[in-house]
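Homework help board

Subject: predicted structure for assignment chain

Our instructor gave us this sequence and asked us to write out the predicted structure in token form, then describe one feature. I got the tokens but I'm not sure how to describe them. Can anyone check?
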Amino acid sequence: MADFDVDAMISRFADRAQAVRDRPLPPVAGQERQKFITQANTDYTDFALVANASWEVEEGNLILRIPLGSGQ
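My token output:
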């Protein structure tokens, strides 16, 4: 796994978060529209959390440190 670039991976998560944020709503209404919005919010949160992580390798394990808000 010598070719694994953690910074590139984190950058891809930032790109994915932005893509979710920029994605237009499909032409759906009612409950399906709300389900789409809810899923988009979840996707954005997941991608943005990883995109803001710092990292290190410890004993052969990739450790992501994800800030969870001010004071954390």
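Reply (TA_rk): Your tokens look well-formed. For the description, you could write something like this. The two ends are 32 Å apart (CA to CA). That's the kind of observation they're looking for.
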